Amino acid sequence: MVGCSRLATNLDLEMLEWAASMGNVADAALPKKSGLDVYEEIGHRHLLRFVMAEQIGAFKDGSIQKHFTTPTPYPPDEIVDILHLPAVHRPRLWALVLDPREIPNIYGPRLVRWGHAIEYLLPDGFPEEALVSRWEVQVS
């Protein structure tokens, strides 16, 4: 299945015309964009923030924490590796679907360092209005 995930990432990179920062670029050095700009950049799509079981419901009112998101859906058995996520022993079987137009401050895109994906950073989190669904969507 890794081949399908890599293909999905490569198609998204083609969509972005390969204009993603390298994985070693510091957060503060990433391009700063409005949510509307990101929405246009990713072809009127949403951003995904994969969550662990213990995080279900934690972001139903939005969040002011920093979050890493991706426009690309991945199968649960590849999410941790492709996105190079911490807590590797905890599966991510759910995702928040976020409307970037409702998020005023987004950094990116950037290639995931040590992974094979595209990420967008939400340095100030996201408001409740950005949640496309009121709760997490199961991806397993």
Walk me through what this model shows.
With 140 residues, this protein is of the alpha+beta class. The protein has one domain (2-138). The protein is built from 3 helices and 9 strands, in the order αβαβββαβββββ. The strands form 3 sheets. It has a 4-stranded antiparallel sheet. The chain has a 3-stranded antiparallel sheet with strand order 2-5-9, with no helix packed on it. A two-stranded antiparallel sheet has the order 3-8. The longest helix is centred in the N-terminal third of the chain and has 14 residues, at 2-15. The radius of gyration is 14 Å and the shape is globular. The mean pLDDT is 92.
Beta fraction: 15-25%
Helix content: 10-25%
The H/E string reads: HEHEEEHEEEEE
Secondary structure class reads: alpha+beta
How many helices? The count is 3
DSSP E strands, number: 9
Separation of the first and last Cα atoms: 14 Å
Low-pLDDT segments, ≥5 res? none
Rg to the nearest angstrom? Answer: 14 Å
- Overall number of structural domains: 1
Main beta sheet strand tally, sense and closure: 4 strands, antiparallel
What is the overall pLDDT average?
Answer: 92
* Sequence of strands across the biggest β-sheet: 1-6-7-4
What spatial form do the alpha-carbon principal axes imply?
A: globular
